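FORM 7B: Structural annotation worksheet

SECTION A. Query
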Amino acid sequence: MRDTARARALAALQGLALGDALGMPTQSMSRERIAADHGRIRGLVAAGPHQQIAAEMPAGSITDDTEQAVLLARLLIDGDGSVRPGVLAAELLGWERTMEARGSLDLLGPSTRAALQRLQDGMPPEEAGRFGATNGAAMRITPVGIAVPVEPLRAFVDAVVSVSALTHNTGIGIAGAAAVGAAVSAGVDGAETPEALDVAVAAAREGARRGHWVAGGDIAARLEWAVPHLLGLDPRSQDDALADVIGTSVAAQESVVAALALVAVTAANGDPAHPDPDAAWDTLCRAASLGGDTDTIAAMAGAVLGATGAADWPRTALDTVRRVNALDLEPLVDGLLRVRRRHA
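SECTION B. Predicted structure
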C-alpha cells in the first residue's frame, strides 16, 4: 500500500506539472485565438505569437501553478505539516521577486497580491485574505492532499484553511482548495476517481462554511449540477458548456468546477477493466484548449487524475518538463508522505 500511495502521490505532482505546462502557451487566451495559433493542443508546445504572460517560453515550461505548489510542498516538509502565515507570505513575495528578475509576467494572482499588500499594510493575517475568491489556493493545494489524510474530513479542511486563509479566506476560495486537495488525498489513500470526486464535493461543502462570505456560486452545488449536464452532451457541446456556461476564468467557482467536471467526464467515459492509457493525457490537452485559465484548470485536473490512478503520463513529456524546469519531484513526494505518516 505504501508503494501505491507513493506512485499516486508522484503521479499527482507530475499531472499538475504536465497540465500546467500544456496550458502555459494558451493561458488567458480565447478558444478562437488558441485554435488559430495552435490548433487543438495535443502535446507540449512553446508560447505562440499572442501569448503575453508567458511570452517566448519554450515547450514544457511550467508556470506559477507548479512553482507555488513546489514552494508550499517545501514549507510543509520543513514545518512538519504546518506553515506559519508570515513564512508563507515571505516565500510568496520572494518568489515573485525572482520571477520579476527573470523578466516574467507570470506573477502573483490578484487575490494573493492584494492579500499580501494588506498584510504589509498592517492588516492581521486572518483578515488579509477576506476577499480572495479566485483559484490561487486551489492551484497550489496538491501538496496538502499528499501530506494530510482526508479523514476526518473536518480536520483535513482545517489543514486546507491553515495554508489558504492568508490569501483566500473566503468560503469560495477555501471550498475550491478543499475540493481539489480532498480528491488528491482520497486518491493517495486508494480511492478511484468517482469516489474521490464524491469526497471533493463533501470537502467543498465543508470548506464553504469557512472564511468570509463573498457572493458567488457554491462550488459543491455547481459541481453536482455540472457533471450530469456534461455527460448528456457530445464532446464538442461539452467544450462549449465548459467555456461558456461553467466558465474557465480565475474565479474558483468556475475553474475548479471545470477541472473536476473534466475529471468526472474522463472517468465516466472510461472502462475500469480496460483503462485507456491516453485518456488522462487527452483530458489535459482538452483543458489546455478551452481558453481562459487553461494552465490552472489542466494542472488541477492532472493532479486529481494522477492521484486517483487514472493516468499513465507519457514518459517523453515528463522528461521534457523535468529537463526544461530542472524539476525534481520525487524528494518532495517522499517528504510529504513522511509528514502524512507521522500525522495519520
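SECTION C. Observations
The chain has a mean pLDDT of 94. Residues 2-23 form the longest helix (22 residues).

SECTION D. Sign-off
Analyst initials: ____
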